[in-house]
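Board notes, transcribed. Complex of a protein with KG4.
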Amino acid sequence: MRPVWVLGLESSCDETAAAVVSTDGDVASDVVHSQVAIHAPYGGVVPEIASRDHLRAMGPVVREALARAGRSLAEIDAIAVTNRPGLIGALLVGVQLAKGLAWAAGKPLVGVDHLVGHLLAPFVRRPSDQNADALGAAAIPPAFPYVAALASGGHTAIYRVDGPLARDVRELGATRDDAAGEAFDKVAKLLGLGYPGGPVIDRLAQRGDPSRVRLVRPMAHRKGFEFSFSGLKTQIAQIVAKAPPRDEQEVADLCAAFQAVATTSLVEKLIAAARAEGVRDVVLTGGVAANRELRARAAEAARDNDLRLTVPPFASCTDNAAMIAYAGAQRFAAGERDALDLGASSVGVLPRRTLRGAGPRSAP
Ligand code: KG4
Ligand code: ZN
């Protein structure tokens, strides 16, 4: 049977992206325009600026994705677009263009939940992707059911994934406050390291000694799979306020201590969730999955627990449209369609089990 090719659009946060991907996960093109440099002076994503830049970039990015795939819109089978969750003004840019294209070309439209896209990222195959990364975490697709830790700048949660549709996904626990990536970004800001903070902390932590800084790990003794990262950031803020780091080594020590706690917390909960659910496959995804200490800890813990770990290549971990096109292709293959009145929403489709803002010390 001829594979189905889907054009996917993504504009939920600060990446404008378009990709052409088949139902099998083969990537014909994958274009990402990052707004990171535009938001950097503000130390975080400014929603209004994000919307305006998506408006500027989305048309050319889609054209480029079709050109690189060597396909006209007429040769595309369906159009997928991230319609939730995310910044509403940003989401609307992708959604409106996707609807216009679907209407003009007479193509079916499918809305995609951004988080489902992240969770299916391990199935996306770019011709350039290696089969395994340096740490031995396979970039081969996991088998359903699997347990995935999704850690990005906007979301951090653990899910059980039984299949490729939103109804097959169950949240096992999420952060009660900040996302893991948000914590990296805020700690970097506190230390004057710029934005985004993850890559800088990752680099500096390699030279730091985590034992020189005492940090309490939030939710460490809590059963269950919920996280809290804001208290960790507050501990760093208090240390910096009391005794500002005097040189680069002290900054590196703080980075190392913070990173050790943040990554240990993610890995321990991921492994515990996989054991509790009785699955063999575990996945690490989202922008924070680029973190070397996190990957190393996860690889080691997976080995020790006889679990198979998949960490998608970096281009699939950070925001991209290939994962959206793939998730859309799965919906399309299952016969799901959206009408041209498809709306955007800041809230995702996956039911949340974790109460936000409950903090690490309040009830279970
Ligand atoms: O998935 P992503 O590109 O965008 C969101 O959907 O949020 O994730 C971006 C986040 C940022 O918070 C960034 O600091 C973090 O991922 N990040 C990292 C690393 N690279 C990016 N965090 C820790 N270590 C890294 N190497
Ligand atoms: Zn994302």
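The mean pLDDT is 93. The pocket of zinc ion (ligand 2) is lined by residues 114, 118, 152, 319 (CB under 6 Å).
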